[in-house]
Amino acid sequence: MSLDSQPSTRLGVAGWCLYDWANSAFPTVIITFVFAAYFTKGVAADEVTGTALWGQAIGWSALVVAVMGPIVGAISDHTGRRKPWLFASTLGCSIACGFLWTIIPDENMVLRALILIGAANIAFELGMVFYNAMLADLVSSDRIGRVSGWGWGTGYAGGLICLVLVLVLFVQTETPLFDLNKDAAEHLRAVGPFVAIWMVLFAAPIFLFTKDRPATGIGKGEAVRRGFKELVQTIKNARQHGTTFKFLIARMIYTDGLNTLFAFGGIYAAGTFGMSFADLIKFGIGLNVTAGIGAFGFAWLDDSWGSKKVILVSLTVLTFLSLGMLIVTDIFHFWVIGLSLGIFIGPAQSASRSMMAHLAPPEIRTEMFGLYALSGKATAFMGPMLVGGLTLMADSQRVGMSAILAFFIVGGVMLLMVPERRATVA
Questions:
Q1: What confidence category does residue 400 fall into, taking pLDDT thresholds of 50, 70 and 90?
Q2: How far is CA 34 from CA 60, 94, 162, 227, in A?
Q3: If you classify domain 8-233 with CATH, what class do you get?
Q4: CA 269, CA 292: separation in Å to the nearest integer?
Q5: Is the pTM above the cut of 0.90?
Q6: What CATH number is given for 237-419 in this structure?
């Protein structure tokens, strides 16, 4: 039953938002900043090899998620409850992060590190399928946008605070916490267990206080059989879900632009403006701060304007700001424009989740969020390939980065053709 008729308590909504605080530590500390840098510089044979291997691990794990997401989502819809699946995913990611402590600075650790990172990323991304699918059951349909924005903004804050604590307590201090041995890279390896504890600690409220759908009573074997059958039927009868599939395609395109902007933003800043690694860390922190502010600030507009309008406004502004970032030649204006981008990145991501919650039929909502996860991964190679190809052809990072504009424009035009509607009761 949807919680349109039985709204979740404030504590339940807070628990749901706090889960974003909990799990955002993983992409921020492990995937983007600290452990990724440690692997490429301290574990792999050299930075080039390390970067290539790291990219492959993330890429292959994303492919697994793209395949598994819709399947486990469809199975979950037939078992009813989502929290057991979310618990298993969270625990799996935390355990894999904890074992990162064993990755000593030795080339022989490369394979183990890649397996742990791949497993952690799969568990993290699959957890997001069930977490996102819970959104429409938390509150009435006229409050979905603000709650999505609160969760997204809370996630940015949690990831940043965890990163700052890691930097202060372990990485950028002469005397790391617990007198960890820097020569053995213990201060860097410790970020794995730290993130694992962070996730378990702050994820607890969603399992304690946030309502879940009731169990259907269908056995696991039968749920698997029905889930596969339902997924096949959904794909075969795509026309019956035409509005949702149109949105997924539009979202797939503009999300490629967002992901490419994040992936190449640091490379562009370092190559074109000569920013140091320390400055890149500061820029990354600043970008996450403005994105969190944007997600919070647009949360109410999502409900009053509608998710579609928030996404379109965000993509329009992102297009002009990205163009400005490619034109400016001084570092000051790059900082101003770059940080301004964050204000509209957060709402674009948050409103996409709430729009999906409105569009997805309640009886197959988790399955649809599995397809939502697929739409964020299926063509993730296109942005980097276009940016890389154009950069080589023109021998210019500015020309290469201009490919991002096309993703925003095409995705926005396709979104214009998607009618908007409100979530319905299950």
A1: confident
A2: 21, 16, 11, 39
A3: mainly alpha
A4: 21
A5: no
A6: 1.20.1250.20
